[in-house]
Design a protein that fits this description.
Rossmann fold; seven-stranded mixed sheet; 2 domains; disordered N terminus; four-stranded parallel sheet; 11 strands; alpha/beta; 15 helices
Length: about 425
């Protein structure tokens, strides 16, 4: 159903019109960017147009889903989660006609500056708008993702990450207490398409029993069995210390590292193939990684006459539209303001960043590879920060194979002989 928004005047005045849109998945703090950008633009005498649902309607040359924004509309929205302009994953770069429609619609709205808010896919769409508008429309992109995987300088977080980590850590902390109280295990899948920042941040802050992220596996593809080996070893080690419970947090990006054979098997069990979104990304939410790991781990222990209660839990949608924490409230105000100041100074075709308290543009041409994708910032597993996380996890490691009595205790807790235990888990004796 088409919703016709408030009609707006096409008289942009001498100062022109700035349009704002949001693409990709939600992240806490979007409204803070919208508010700051709107207020600064109006202070400069510009008209501000909010475009609903990302590029969705523009790609259809539809200018009816817009709203002229005022300071009263946005003055207090920076406290709110979600997006007052909503969002979509529409990809206008897939079809030349769609991109032509976007440019045509923006021209009809008399837009001379565009602020896009989104991840790397939206950044690429924004770069193409700047390219195809031939200088008529200046473009600034504000990076957002709870995954924290965009290569911002100085390891600056992407906005939304700090809030998502805070909310996610509280959920994990509650699950830790529930696991202890009920004597069960929780297998938590945390959002993170490519990198494990959110999963690691949540688990480290909450003191989760275990966290597994894609970056810890050096090989490009990993079997489901190898992932389950890590968890199985952790459960055995916990049982050996009379703690038959815990929470294992896993990044959803582990699914993208699975072998083709494992993905095919998961698809067969789900009676479906893994779908992809408008930008060609695997829909990881459709890969039931938590259930697959739960079923395999349960099967292994059941074969040794050990019954476990395991509950799978996905933490993702709960954190995307949470009310932003003060860090993200402040950060997004800086970013929205900086985007407008960049455009007002004649800048274009760049992602805005805050470095040392100052706005520094990161130009699209310097950030994107031949596919039009920005480089992914992965968790650096060589850092002290990651080492601290690993030290506080419960995992099988070299220290577990140095004492024969302890090895025997581990084997007994796992329902196997010492020889079977060493044959299966001996490789962890060389783990880093």
């Amino acid at each position: 159903m088409t919703i016709m928004m408030k009609s707006i005047s096409h008289d942009g005045g001498p100062q022109g019109t700035i349009a704002i849109l949001v693409g990709g998945g939600p992240a806490p703090g979007i409204n803070g960017v919208i508010a700051a950008a709107t207020i600064e633009a109006i202070e400069q005498g510009k008209r501000v147009v909010g475009i609903y649902d990302g590029f969705k309607w523009l790609a259809r040359n539809d200018v009816g889903h817009v709203k002229e924004l005022t300071i009263d509309d946005v003055s207090r929205i920076h406290f709110q989660g979600g997006s007052i302009l909503r969002t979509s994953r529409e990809n206008p770069t897939k079809d030349p006609q769609k991109m032509a429609s976007v440019i045509s619609a923006l021209r009809e709205l008399r837009v001379d500056c565009l602020v896009t808010i989104g991840g790397d896919d939206t950044a690429f769409s924004a770069s193409q708008v700047a390219k195809h508008a031939n200088g008529e429309i200046r473009v600034a992109h504000v990076p957002k993702t709870i995954d924290n995987d965009l290569p911002l300088p100085g390891l600056a977080p992407t906005f939304g990450y700090e809030t998502a980590r805070s909310v996610g850590a509280e959920i994990v902390r509650n699950l830790m207490e529930d696991a202890r109280t009920t004597g069960r295990w929780y297998f938590v899948i945390a959002m993170g398409r490519h990198a494990g920042h959110l999963a690691l941040g949540m688990s480290k802050a909450a003191g989760a029993t275990l966290c597994i992220i894609p970056e810890e596996f050096e090989q490009p593809k990993v079997t489901l069995a190898a992932m389950c080996d890590v968890i199985e070893g952790t459960i055995i080690k916990r049982r050996a210390t009379d703690r038959p419970h815990g929470v294992a947090v896993m990044a959803e990006g582990l699914a993208s590292k699975l072998t083709d054979e494992d993905l095919a098997e998961l698809g067969r069990k789900n009676l479906a193939t893994v779908d992809r979104d408008e930008h060609g990304n695997m829909r990881l939410s459709e890969v039931n990684l938590g259930k697959a790991i739960r079923d395999e781990v349960e099967r292994r222990f059941a074969a040794r006459k050990i019954k476990l209660t395991i509950v799978e839990k996905v933490i993702g949608y709960e954190v995307r539209c949470a009310a932003p924490v003060p860090f993200d409230c402040e950060y997004t105000r800086d970013l929205g303001y900086a985007a407008v100041r960049f455009l007002a100074g004649g800048g274009s075709a760049a992602m805005v960043s805050i470095q040392g308290g100052k706005m520094v543009p990161m130009f699209f041409k310097d950030m994107m590879d031949e596919r039009g994708k920005t480089k992914v910032r992965f968790v650096d597993t060589t850092t002290e920060s990651y080492r601290v996380a690993r030290e506080y996890m419960i995992r099988l490691g070299p220290e577990d194979f140095r004492n024969e009595q302890w090895v025997a205790r581990l084997a007994e807790s796992g329902g196997c002989t010492t020889e079977e235990f060493v044959n299966k888990f001996g490789r962890f004796a060389q783990a880093g």
